[in-house]
Design brief:
single chain; mainly alpha; CMD-like; AhpD-like; Carboxymuconolactone decarboxylase family protein; globular
């Protein structure tokens, strides 16, 4: 049971219009946004931040950004965000072999060294205490420029917010996200948990 009930998608028309972004990303407006709109300034600011963070200005692809989000959400244990991130990675063109083997990104041949460096950065930055160190920095700079590193950390930070929001709220998970979670993450024990 959610801590706070999501409102109707029609509750705040400005949020509704901005939230059309999620129809492309996920195929639906997330219940997290429908809850945030109890304070429309929060929902609007969140959507605009999400759009800015997920914009592609370098070589960090939309699919890789969503896999970075999945690693971050997996590190914090947010099952809601794990399912959303893997669904968005699929919708943004992640290779099937990567989706099927995301848990083994460090060793699976579907991932190259640049992607591994980005995903290891996500894992290290999402841990408490933070584990970003000189070795993470050296690996990042081997493959990515500073603007691309900023894009990656933007994703990690955005999902830090979402992981705390959705786990604390117990946000009800949408059917499409459950479907993707079961398909790609279920073999490793993913379940919706408190996000009923």
């Amino acid at each position: 049971m959610p801590l706070v009930t999501p409102l109707s998608a029609d509750h705040d028309l400005e949020t509704k219009n901005l939230a059309e972004f999620f129809n492309e990303t996920l195929g639906f407006c997330p219940n997290s946004v429908l809850t945030m709109q109890r304070r429309p300034a929060i929902s609007k600011a969140f959507i605009n931040l999400n759009k800015a963070v997920m914009a592609n200005e370098g070589r960090v692809t939309s699919a890789l950004k969503r896999m970075i989000a999945w690693v971050s959400s997996n590190a914090t244990g947010c099952r809601y965000c794990q399912a959303h991130a893997i669904r968005a990675a699929e919708r943004y063109g992640a290779e099937q072999e990567q989706l099927d083997n995301i848990w083994e990104y460090r060793t699976h041949r579907a991932f190259n060294e640049a992607e591994r460096a980005a995903l290891d950065f996500s894992l290290a930055a999402s841990q408490v205490p933070n584990a970003v160190d000189e070795s993470i920095k050296k690996r990042l700079y081997k493959f990515w420029d500073e603007g691309e590193i900023v894009e990656m950390l933007g994703v990690i930070a955005l999902f830090g917010y979402l992981n705390r929001w959705n786990d604390s709220m117990g946000t009800s998970i949408e059917d499409g996200a459950v479907e993707s979670g079961n398909q790609y993450l279920g073999k490793h024990g993913w379940e919706k948990g408190k996000h009923i």
